[in-house]
Amino acid sequence: MYDLVIIGAAAAGPAAAIYAIRRGLNVIIVSKDTGGEVALSGEVENWPSVIHTTGVELAKQFTDHIKHYNVPLDEGYEVTSISQEGNYHSVHAKDYAGKEKIYQTKAVIVASGIHPRELNAIHEKELKGRGITYCTVCDGPLFKGKVTATIGAGNSAVESALMMGGIAQKVYVLTKYGPDENNNGFPKAENILVKKMMATPTIEVVHYANTTEMVGDTKLTGIKYTDSKTGEEKELAVDGAMVHIGVIPNSDFIDCAQKDEGKQIKVDRLCNTSCKGIFAAGDVTDIPYKQISIAVGMGATAALSAIDYINHFEE
Ligand SMILES: Cc1cc2nc3c(=O)[nH]c(=O)nc-3n(C[C@H](O)[C@H](O)[C@H](O)COP(=O)(O)OP(=O)(O)OC[C@H]3O[C@@H](n4cnc5c(N)ncnc54)[C@H](O)[C@@H]3O)c2cc1C
């Protein structure tokens, strides 16, 4: 029987664990890996107190910190469901061989993050991190003065294009919609942002573009797409591709807590979910800003809320 099970060992999870263990809780982290999206963050230059680091290095430091406190960690376990019995929760997980393990606990912190929706374009996997990014806020500045393409038709794609419009020499924006669709081919984006984008001289919108292939051997050199109006195959020479076609929260294993239409777990400002004894922190929640410092702050908040909950726990 645990006081607290934390799901995820990237940013929010370790932050929560540090607070929980220092308060003497019987805590364990259950996670598929250590590092999560932090380790995939490339160059990190917005973690306060460190001017420049890499995602890999920062993720290692987070892991070293939980090891320093001997926080029990079951790495290589994927949580598949959480069930309730009275005020207790059972966290069901399985390892890579499919062997099941069940953790009984008073409280749970879900810090399982998100994963970006991929295009499923040819060579996308091989060129990920070699010109292809799913986070313009993080990696956009690396393409200063270069030619980039943002792929997507929602707000995050338009915001990505606007950001790159001020950094890159030239920015293509590939939307699968035509110009007659709502909002000039960006039906899910805010009109005011689209207008701003259309008025930016460095930005060129490409309509009816269905991205099919990422081109390049060791790094991205171009993008191939099909023009769905004419059926033509076309290619653009680019140094960077920002893919913004949505993210998928890692929240399928939890039924009890309310989620929004995008599967993000709804939390209040103290990281409570709608499910008693279950807290959530970081990118898996409905917080609109997906950043390491925010995930860490939410992890600490979730831990303090869980500690308060456990202190008042009724059998
Ligand atoms: C390319 C890229 C660059 C970025 N650059 C920056 C940057 O420069 N600065 C910045 O602040 N942010 C950056 N970010 C965002 C940052 O990575 C995230 O905000 C941060 O990692 C969120 O941390 P998290 O703990 O909420 O979740 P995640 O990092 O997503 O970690 C989730 C954890 O949960 C585990 N997990 C998931 N599902 C399960 C399950 N079912 N069972 C058990 N374990 C599970 C995973 O293994 C992982 O350990 C970047 C993101 C990307 C993709």
From TrEMBL:
Keywords: Flavoprotein, Oxidoreductase. GO terms for molecular function: oxidoreductase activity. The keyword DNA damage does not apply. It holds the Pfam family Pyr_redox_2. Residues 2-299 form the FAD/NAD(P)-binding domain. The keyword DNA-binding does not apply. InterPro entries: FAD/NAD-bd_sf (IPR036188), FAD/NAD-binding_dom (IPR023753), Ferredoxin-NADP_redctase_2 (IPR050097). Gene3D superfamilies: FAD/NAD(P)-binding domain. PANTHER family: THIOREDOXIN REDUCTASE 1-RELATED-RELATED. This is FAD/NAD(P)-binding domain-containing protein. It comes from Candidatus Magasanikbacteria bacterium CG10_big_fil_rev_8_21_14_0_10_47_10.
